[in-house]
Amino acid sequence: MRRYYKILPLLFLTLIIAAGCGGKKMVSEDIAGQAAPAAGEAEKSPQAVLVPEDKPVTEDVRSEDLSGAADTKSGGKFASISPGDELTKEAETKGTLFTIYFDYDRYTIRDEDKDNLNKNAKWLTLNAGVKVRIEGHADERGETEYNLALGDKRAKSVEKYLEDMGVKNVRLSTISYGEEKPVDPGNGEDAWAKNRRAEFVINSTN
Q1: Mean pLDDT of the chain
Q2: DSSP letter assigned to residue 141
Q3: For 155, which of 36, 101, 134, 169 could close a Cys bridge (C-beta 3.0–4.6 Å)?
């Protein structure tokens, strides 16, 4: 019995030490699971999307686009959405951006034209010193005054779209030519479809 009493305290002490070590392990795992990410990890996350300091004009505009454009500007007058892009070539050679077209007797933006209009907006964001005049046009059908009013609505519809995407109003102006400046003088739907349009003319750069 005496021998048993001597062993019992040793067993009890061993159990306490073992339990203590196990408890430390559990606590350390809990803390590790709740730990805040180390400084700089948020920037490395693939979900982290960087945007310009100004309100982005489209979901597609990223800081990578802006930094890339700075490099392409060295080869010409304007910054490009991408090296050698068609829109910048048009701006350089013709002084215009992509033309937007409309359905007969309508001034709402068509889905098929939104891609080019978004590119115009992105390009204007990259070239913050550029101002453009939006010219509204109509085909030859209808009275002159009616077509002037329709051309004005088309130009203002495009202007509003750009403003909603973040292009500042002071960089945009509008004018209507109605039916007076057809791009195609033909008398048929093919010609009329080309004439129902809003053109972007670069009228100043800073």
Answers
A1: 76
A2: -
A3: 134
